[in-house]
Amino acid sequence: MIAEVKDMRTKKLVELAKTIRSKNAGTDKITFDIIFNEKAHYELIKKTKVLTRESVSKLFHIPEERVSDFVEFDPACAIKFTIYRKRPSGSPGETDVFGCQQYPPLLDLEIPVEP
Fold first, then answer.
1. Are the C-beta atoms of residues 46 and 56 closer than 8 Å to each other?
2. CB-based contact 46:89 (threshold 8 Å)
3. What is the reported pLDDT for 6?
4. How far apart are CA 115 and CA 112, in angstroms?
5. What is the DSSP string of 58-96?
6. Cβ atoms 112, 8 nearer than 8 A
7. Domain-embedded: residue 39
8. What integer pLDDT is reported at residue 95 of this predicted model?
9. CB-based contact 17:11 (threshold 8 Å)
């Protein structure tokens, strides 16, 4: 999507969001929270459609079926999504028991902003 808007200025998601985090959501899932201080930033993310179930699957290099939930929660100006783990939390070969190291791909996500 960004390639289509070459003349438009962008900001990274980390510049717009107050909180970007991931955490354990049970044995088989990791959940991600993106929370905004400013409603305008939250509305911009929704309007641009840069962050969707489909874009999450591409960003994390997973099939879309592994994205179990994707919610835009207006009262909190937050976006939350959950993905299925490849392996259960704590099992042999699993690399992040708490799921807290999975969010970095979101930090540099480019968001088109008005010039």
1. no
2. no
3. 55
4. 9
5. HHTT--GGGEEEEEEEGGGTEEEEEEE-SS-TTSTT---
6. yes
7. yes
8. 87
9. no
Question: Tokens at residue 94, please?
Answer: 């699993």
Is 90 part of any domain? yes
Per-residue confidence (pLDDT) for residue 75, from 0 to 100: 97
pLDDT of residue 20: 98
* 50 found inside a domain: yes
pTM above 0.85, yes or no: yes
As a whole number of angstroms, the distance between CA 73 and CA 62 comes to 23
How far is Cα 6 from Cα 40, in angstroms, rounded to an integer? 22
Tell me the two tokens of residue 16. Answer: 């717009």
Q: Which of 115, 106, 114 is nearest to 13 (CA)?
A: 106
Q: How far apart are CA 102 and CA 100, in angstroms?
A: 6
Query: Which pLDDT does position 7 carry in this prediction?
Result: 60
17 in Cβ contact with 41 (< 8 Å): yes
Structural domain count of the chain:
1
Mean pLDDT for each consecutive 10-residue tract of the chain (115 residues)? 60 97 96 97 96 97 97 98 93 90 95 83
